[in-house]
Design goal:
The protein is α/β, with parallel strands linked by helices and 416 residues long. It contains 17 helices and twelve strands. A nine-stranded mixed sheet has the order 1-2-6-5-4-3-7-8-9, sandwiched between helices. A three-stranded antiparallel sheet has the order 10-12-11. The radius of gyration is 24 Å and the shape is elongated.
Length: 416
């Protein structure tokens, strides 16, 4: 039986940057890959691991090419030493064969493995029992993973992805913090891509809640992207894991990030899209989730905001379930937790002097001058009150003299 062609995004329909340009680009799920599509794993750490890493380090060698070699040869060491004719019979194209043969003289397998280990990472090949079982189920699983941190974090039974736009609104920040924090506090592993915006907020909220989190990179372990997330990357590696299919030398490129999104979807039970405009990488993750037969959830957004068009369309078209809380997510995924785990954070009430200001705070940023005028108080007094409310966790400064409530009640909530 011929191996089925691995799934690749339809770039012609996805716009210049590879992002879905409409929700109609999200197609129904395809049949899962059959057992004959990929060689059966051996259930052991391969003796030829250095050759897996060396092959993966060759510029121009795609995951599909590595799979072709894995199918054709009884070991990656033999594949590494194969002749041009053997490589051609294995299914590699002439251009790839030339790149491989040229690179073979410059790459020493043990040195390639040492370069990976120097970053604090380790290699998990398809044959290794540590390879995440859930990721094996997708149509195009990576042949090799590079991991920094706790490898077991990749195989948690209860894992959810949270993704969204880099240019998030204050509303998206608050929603992401609540969902990621409450889910992580309930024992759910949070998976995302460590991009600016929603991804980074989701990782930080999970870390703050004491839960594990997994970051899937579109670069090699030698490049932290964005560079501003250096501290966050270290914290994720200490409390969870960083994973990538790309070699150590790989820097960020436009095509890498859409492709890595299949790993985000493949590691989890379901994906939550918090905020996404129609041209959005988050919609690619949603499409992969459909292809992987995984749950898709979306947070309803402001119908007048371009940043909410993608999420609202997912809901409207019936491709995602609307969720507004961790309880909604757990119900969608059929996960039961101890009710104590879902308890709200301890309630701290504002005192009588603080109440006129606290009652004005919600998810929409409000300027200190506006609050002072509404409460009939001088600005310096309101500033002091807001400082106390911040210390109590009842206010947050979002810049420009504007404040929000960190955990506002959803519409129709009981209030406090």
């Amino acid at each position: 039986m011929a191996a089925r062609r691995p799934y690749r995004p339809n770039v012609a329909r996805m716009g210049r940057r590879g992002y879905a340009t409409s929700v109609s680009d999200i197609r129904p799920a395809v049949e899962p890959a059959g057992d004959l599509d990929f060689p059966a794993p051996t259930g052991r750490t391969p003796d030829d691991l250095a050759y897996w890493v060396a092959l993966n380090a060759v510029r121009g060698i795609s995951s599909g090419a590595v799979w072709a070699l894995r199918r054709a040869f009884d070991s990656m060491e033999r594949a590494w030493g194969a002749s041009a004719g053997e490589l051609r019979r294995a299914g590699l194209e002439s251009k790839v064969i030339k790149q491989f043969l040229d690179a073979r003289g410059d790459i020493e397998p043990e040195a390639a493995l040492a370069a990976l280990e120097k970053t604090g990472g380790l290699a998990i090949a398809w044959d290794d029992p540590a390879y995440p079982a859930r990721l094996r189920e997708i149509a195009d699983p990576p042949a090799l993973l590079h991991v920094r941190g706790d490898v077991d974090a990749l195989s948690q039974d209860r894992a959810v992805a949270i993704v969204g736009t880099r240019r998030m609104s204050t509303y998206a920040r608050l929603v992401t913090e609540r969902l990621a924090g409450d889910l992580a506090g309930s024992g759910i592993t949070i998976v995302s891509g460590m991009a600016s915006g929603v991804d980074s907020v989701a990782h930080r909220a999970a870390l703050d809640a004491g839960g594990p989190t997994v970051a899937v990179w579109g670069t090699g372990l030698g490049t932290i992207y964005p560079a501003a997330n250096r501290t966050l990357a270290r914290q994720i590696a200490e409390q969870g894991a960083i994973v990538t299919e790309y070699p150590v030398w790989m820097r960020g490129s436009a095509e890498n990030f859409p492709q890595r999104n299949r790993i985000i979807s493949g590691l989890v039970l379901g994906t939550i899209v918090v905020e996404a405009p129609l041209p959005s990488g988050a919609l690619i993750t949603a499409r992969y989730a459909i292809e992987h037969n995984r749950e898709i959830m979306a947070v309803p957004g402001d119908i007048f905001k371009a940043g909410s068009q993608g999420t609202n369309a997912l809901i409207f078209r019936g491709e995602a379930r609307a969720v507004t809380s961790a309880a909604d997510v757990l119900e969608t995924l059929g996960i039961s937790v101890d009710p104590v785990q879902l308890a709200l954070h301890p309630v701290v009430e504002p005192d009588a002097d603080e109440r006129p200001i606290a009652e004005q705070l919600n998810a929409s940023p409000r300027h200190i001058d506006t609050m002072a005028q509404t409460a009939g108080l001088p600005a310096h007094r309101v500033s002091a009150i807001l400082t106390m409310l911040e210390l109590k966790g009842l206010a947050r400064h979002v810049g420009g003299g504007r404040y929000v409530h960190p955990r506002p009640e959803p519409a129709g909530g009981s209030g406090g």
